[in-house]
Automatic annotation (TrEMBL):
GO biological process terms, semicolon-separated: response to arsenic-containing substance
Keywords: Arsenical resistance
Keyword Translocase recorded: no
Matching Pfam families: LMWPc
InterPro entries linked to this entry: Ptyr_pPase, Ptyr_pPase_sf
Residue span(s) of domain Phosphotyrosine protein phosphatase I: 1-117
Xref: SUPFAM superfamilies: Phosphotyrosine protein phosphatases I
Name listed for the protein in its UniProt record: Arsenate reductase
Gene3D superfamilies for this protein: 3.40.50.2300
Length: 137
């Protein structure tokens, strides 16, 4: 969801970004993710679950953003030019569609802010330690 939302924010703001997402393991794109993203007009049909080694030039990113604690802990070291940020979110897996929607909406707010910062040449928002609260079950 984060990849699609970051790409959409870049498109809306007219920012040329190459966006890739990867997880700690390749599984599958969950149907709940497809459903809640379709609700906001984003189609995940071409998306697939990937590991870091499945993305192009995995050691040369300008920015690496992790959205779950396990990814932050297992994320490899990057050369000096890579800026890392951690923005944790509750994993909606196993939750209701309402929980998926809430996480989707939180991700949208975060990645809109990230792309807005990039568009304006500003520093990315600081890393966070705790996930935003999830109220829906």
């Amino acid at each position: 969801m984060a990849e699609a939302l970051a790409r959409d924010a870049a498109r809306r703001l007219g920012v040329a970004l190459e966006v890739h997402s990867a997880g700690t393991e390749a599984t599958r794109v969950k149907e709940e993710a497809r459903a809640v993203m379709a609700e906001v007009g984003l189609d995940l049909a071409g998306h697939r679950s990937k590991t870091l080694w499945d993305v192009p030039d995995a050691q040369n990113f300008d920015y690496v953003i992790t959205v779950c604690d396990s990814a932050a802990e297992s994320c490899p070291a990057y050369p000096g030019q890579t800026t890392r940020r951690h923005y944790p979110f509750v994993d909606p897996s196993g939750g209701s569609l309402e929980r998926w929607r809430e996480v989707r909406d939180q991700l949208k707010v975060r990645f809109d802010a990230v792309v807005q910062a990039l568009a304006g040449g500003a520093e990315l928002p600081a890393s966070e330690e705790h996930s935003p609260p999830v109220t829906a079950q």
